[in-house]
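Task: complex structure prediction.
Instruction: return structure tokens for all chains below.
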Amino acid sequence: MIWHIAKKEIHHNLMTLRFVLMIILLPVLMVANALIYGFGNTGYTEEIYNYNRKVTQRLAHIERFASEGLGKLAMMGPGEIPKHPSQLKFCADGTDESIPRSITIADRTNYGRGGNEGEAYRWREMWSLEYLPTNHSGDATTLIKIDWVFIGIFMSFFVILFTFDAIAGERVQGTLSLMMSNRVSRGQILLAKYLGAFFTLMVPLTIGILMNLLIIYLSGNIPIDFSDWLRILGMVGLFALHISIFIFLGLFFSSWVSNAITSLVWLLLSWVCLAFIFPSLLGIFVGTLDPIPSIEVISSRRQTQLANIENEFRPLKTSESSKLKQAPSPDNPLATRRWAAYLTSIGETKTQIADRHVDQQFRQVRLARELTQISPTACFQYAMEGFANSGITSYMNFVQQVRRYRQTFKDFIKSEDSGDPDSLHIYFVREGLSQKPVDPDAVPQFEEKPSYQSVLFPTALLILFNVLFFTAAQLSFLKCDLK
Amino acid sequence: MTTLWLIIQREFISNVLTSRFMIGFVVCLISTAAAIFVQVADYEKRSAAYHVAVQEHQDETRTWDLYSQINPKAHRKPNPLSIFRVGMEKSGADMVSIDLATPIWEKDAQKQGSDNPFLSIFLSVDVIFVFKIVLSALAILFAYNTISGEREDGTLKLVLSNPVPRDRLVLGKYLGGMLSLFPIVVISFVVGLVIAFASPTTTFNGSDLLRLVMVLIVSLLYVSVCYLLGLLLSVWTKAAATTLILSMFIWGILTIVHSNIATFAVSKFPPHKLQPEKEARQQVEKIWEDFKTERDTYILKKWGYKYPVSAISQEEALSIQITMSSPWELGFKELYNIEPIRNANVSKFQEVLGYQEPLRIDYANKAEELLKRREEISERNAQLARDISRISFADAYRFAVGTITGTDRESYNDFMDQTRRYKRQIVGHLADKNAFSERAWFSSDKEAAELIDLPVFQHRYNSVSESFFRALGDIFILLAWNVILFIGAYLSFLRYDMS
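Output:
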């Protein structure tokens, strides 16, 4: 019986104007997406080219300094670390242009004397990670990209148009009571209505996605391997979950209110709130809810701390003698140790401040995302970004991995150094370390591992929303008046 | 006249008593209030940051005692009207650091007050966004069944069996519908205004209020276009359900899809090709090479020195330290520190500087022109995207409000232009004082530079009338849509088949 009603529902839907409009618009949007991402400027081709260039630069950097000795390499660091661009950006763009593409290594060479009347010594501060934000400027509308996420959001609007009169319309026409006079339970009718709408909606979506992938495939600009196909399949699943939530929402309102138009008003306004207003207002609101120190405060704090270190080691007043009078050298372990202490405390202070600052920013973003997840549309977006490995979460993952790599790199320096009997084993100043060249291939490489963990929570929420809205629709339909 | 009034009244009452009116009203009110509340908090932060930055800059100014140290900063004043329409307010540069020997380039200008750049991934929702989406949907929901619905109910025939001309019926329905939308728009707007006023930081002057009144009028124009669209479709289609689906579909395309596709497609397929940044930077480097050549040739010809500093070291036993820097890798700056400066005769050097520094500024201006031309090309692409977006009345509305409130792209470009003019003003001021050939350019041993009367940057917004004239194009688009849709609905209804 369920299948019978569902079939009737599908037949009915296929003949409607809304279906005609959707089967035109959805493939058009999907094709536009494929054309824009497959052939447009600053596409994947350019991104991967830049990425490869930076990787080559990084390898050259390591090779060059590894040949100049371990001490030099320890001070110069592993070079700028680029983030691998995502092939599936056309699915979820994740406003990637406002997210940095790489983590740079701060380097600063100081010329001068070690202390006021000390020996002339040219030194280099130890490398540290820098999380430079991208300074993009543009009107806010450019933030919206025509990716699959956008199409999914727009599709939820169509879902509303399909379901707003599913119950209310039949009630007005009187067919609802006719249907109920058969041996069929209310639950079955609801389920059948759901299945009918679901399959009708999946048809244009599938057509659109297939056309999209065909164009992307034919363009040859975006390589898609097996794991990508799996991810795309996962995204189609997300589409289904997202659509299904809005079908339940539509059925809920349609059975809850007496006429179709009131149901549409409710649905439309809930849709606007869920798709646009909640995600953005809550996102901005976090800045007020959980303020973090401003960039100016942080930079002045940093200056004070660095000045304190300078004062401790190299006081400006001539009456106090500098601890860094003598230049470090393998023959002078005492001076080398002092220099190491000086450079390490500067490096650690910088690292600590930069790390903490970016962590605070991430914490805000995370809070904002958690808050916005009360909207299923936001959950859909985040899960899509998770699969596509784009957006802010993938950058956060990247930062964590780079930090781990920083430790690996330092450990490598120490272990290499411990193998050299001529070294003073003083960390980290060039003269305190081994001066022998290192095999560049032995230097640990940074390997970015995409993490799909961020998909789990929003997907779980999407399922939860499905259950929630299903229950709500069920209850409201059970209670609804047939006349 | 009485029949018209009767129709208006009836339409108004039948609209107001519906649940869609109540729901729409409440949702519009709540989302407006929420948007204003969030934006006021944001504005307060920006405003505080602005005042701190200006104060700090003033303190910094007092520490300068050399002309070569002059490095004024131009701060963009937060716009209180950005509470209603954010626009460019939160993107782009907030502060331009002006260095006489460096071209001003938008890309290098700094952003302040944004504690967390990552939060910019969230879309900025403001009142105008709420109006653009929610009000338009409401207007269409009010209008979709005015004709087709009544036809289905059979009431249309009844009405027309009375001595009511068709034109009056259409006019009455339009005015009645607008009358019922009017309180929603005005009350939401006023509630927003009250919340904005309640904040101690926000101060609206007379011209701001005038602008807000204009925004309100433009909003009504926009709502009217949406209502007329629903009305026209209601005349064209036979069944109310068809009207509803069709109008919602058009609404979705015009308010959400159209401008995003236009903007995004233009950004991915820009018709005007932009020169790569690297190339532009190389050209700037070349300009500085030219500067050095011209300077050295002239100095050699006129004074017989190979380098400018030869003007001192040849005659006196002085040591000179030159600090060369290239701010943002675009400028070319040289600072001179002469030891021991006391009683040193540096008049020749001053003469050289009097020639060299204005020349340097000329070259910096040349580089600035070059960078500005590049910016203009990207601006042309953005303009194209805007022009395509404008076809949709929803975006014409957005742009009109942006221009009126002064938060549009052009007002931002205006700010950048003002900073460039300000730089020229400072150069003029220094030239009047002959500051380039003063000893105080590089040393304060005799007397410090006189900087008390140095012009201070004042960010000036366009006057109300200027903004209005700029917005006229978009207002005209809205008016044209109104007229076309109304005539369309009117003519179609005259030929309407009752059966």
